[in-house]
Amino acid sequence: MAPSSPLIATPILYTYTGGAAGPWRISSIEAVVGEGLPAAARLAVRGAESGGEAVGSWSLRGVTSNGRYTTGEEARTLAERQPSLGRAEATRAALIPIRKSPSWWALAQDARRELLQETSRHISIGLDYLPAIARRLHHGRDLGEPFDFLTWFEFAPTHEADFNSLLKRLRATPEWAYVDREVDVRVRREVGEQANALLA
Amino acid sequence: MAPSSPLIATPILYTYTGGAAGPWRISSIEAVVGEGLPAAARLAVRGAESGGEAVGSWSLRGVTSNGRYTTGEEARTLAERQPSLGRAEATRAALIPIRKSPSWWALAQDARRELLQETSRHISIGLDYLPAIARRLHHGRDLGEPFDFLTWFEFAPTHEADFNSLLKRLRATPEWAYVDREVDVRVRREVGEQANALLA
Questions:
Q1: In this predicted structure, what is the pLDDT of residue B3?
Q2: What is the pLDDT of residue B48?
Q3: How far B115 CA sits from the closest chain A CA (Å)?
Q4: How many contacts, defined by CB atoms under 8 Å, are there between A and B?
């Protein structure tokens, strides 16, 4: 059931809160481009259905939504290969909030698609790291959030080098010239701990 | 300046409130597909920058955002032909909130684009009514709103028949088979009255 879910896209609001609470221990916060985020000890991830108020050093929101660029064929390939979130062995994760420049958003749909995939191979690069790395994409721009996207990745410690390689390749693409703020938040948890309030 | 603005897409949140206040007098509320909206006397339109609290019978929110389907060429053609909101002669308007079915949102980007333009000629049909009819599109789905889109149209009384023809053609398209809720709210104002708190 889960692998086919990318095509079923009821928006769910997620909040990522850096503070004193949460199952994920923050190991580093790096400002990749532009302003970073304040230091915090732990990260809590809450889905809209999980309730409770976010109290922390910072709180970022985004909604899962329908795909904006993937074709049906690409979506089916992704669905076949991508793993679920919350795997027992995936004790490392990364929250990477990203903002793109006004010049990106001034581009029409066809120009953005061309830059993202035909020029930068964003979707293809991501496929190279499946099924090692599970991911969830959230949109924040239409919510008035400081970041246009919250990207969330989960992987086993043995795949951390692969994950770093994925980031290195993406950050070298023409698409990334349009990224004007990016923060890389790395977290880890103990094996067996409940990772997310809502796995969707 | 205004005609090129569709490519500059900083999201602005708009709220449409049916109640006792507002420059637009509501002349009819028709449930086209699915559940309608409660009766109200007047319509207020507020942009995020205009402040104040919405008090009324109903209140619907949506953000203007980047284009999701138009190509660069289509966007340039639209920008050349489309008029600004708030024209003195445009004393009639329509708010048409629309929700699409889960099966629409389960389609990938390429399938939605194909249905919208290549099959249904949505963008082309709209062009046939420029510059008579000014419009603004707002997205509500990612905000958790009851409608996925709020569409707003302004025109002179002399173009009301053209506007009805536009709606008739759109509603007959294959794309409209995916519309599972649609309400048609017609409004009018006196010549010379201020129509909108924020013209963007």
A1: 38
A2: 80
A3: 13
A4: 77
pTM, full prediction: 0.89
CB contacts of B142 in chain A (<8 Å) are 11, 63, 65, 139, 142-143
A110 at B interface, C-beta within 8 A: yes
Whether the link from the prior residue into A102 is cis, omega within 30° of 0, is: no
* Residue B9 pLDDT: 62
The Cα of A114 is separated from the nearest Cα of chain B by a number of Å equal to 11
- H-helix segments, chain A: 72-81, 102-105, 109-113, 122-127, 160-171
Taking the C-alpha atoms of residue A51 and residue A21, their distance in angstroms, rounded to an integer, is 15
pLDDT tens profile A109-150: 999 999 999 999 999 999 999 999 999 999 999 999 999 999
Interface with A, mutate which of B63, B65, B110 (most A CBs under 10 A):
B110
Residue with tokens 């909130």: B97
For residue range A152-181, list pLDDT tens digits in order. 999 999 999 999 999 999 999 999 999 999
User: Quick one: pLDDT band at residue A51, thresholds 50, 70, 90?
Assistant: low
Length of chain A: 200
Query: What ipTM goes with this model?
Result: 0.85
For residue B106, which residues of chain A lie inside 8 Å, CB to CB?
7-9
| Residue numbers of B between 22 and 51 with CB closer than 8 Å to A | 48
Nearest Cα to Cα of residue A141 among A181, A187, A199, A95: A181
CB B198 within 8 A of CB B46: yes
